[in-house]
# Entry
Amino acid sequence: MSHSAITAKAAEFTENYLGEFDAEHADELRVAREHAADLGIECVSHQVASLLELLAASIQAQAIIEIGTGTGISGAALLEGMKTGGVLTSIDLEAEYQRHAKELFTSLGCESNRTRLIAGRALDVLPRFSDRAYDLIFVDADAGDNPAILNQTKRLLRIGGLVIFHGAFATGMADASARDYEATAMRDIATELRSDNAWLPSLLTVGSGLFLASLRTPE
# Structure
């Protein structure tokens, strides 16, 4: 008997099957998720966290930028997947969120020199970073800034590096009637990634949707 592949039960099974990416520190990660809920921010799902760890490991990432620190769940997953000694630079407007993230990283045994937390607006901070110095850039922030952030990632990533935009479908992008700035911005990302041969893009229905692309050439 055939079954529909993607159902609510399948999604629930996957979340339960994966659990936290770091089972040894599941309690610390649970507390970080609770802090996020108290602050009214949404963490990446277990599925997305697991995928971030896998992607960071698969490209042997040593230098990662995260835009949208939150309480540290996605950053912790990226750190878990990075090469030993790799450095995560995480940017967020809210210093309070980063305080919780720092507490999480410390509780997971992460050395302080492996994280750099910057409180500020990404589009003000990114221009200060070096060209071709980063392996992966994860974006989980105001979707309205995404087109401008994508322009910066093309300069910052090494060839073969990955950019990942979280929350693609949360913007309403798939709803043709949605015309707000976040949905429009995500559609602009979709158009740019498909039309620019410098990128090899994909769109996944994991979590609330992931747009990801590998940089094939700087031109």
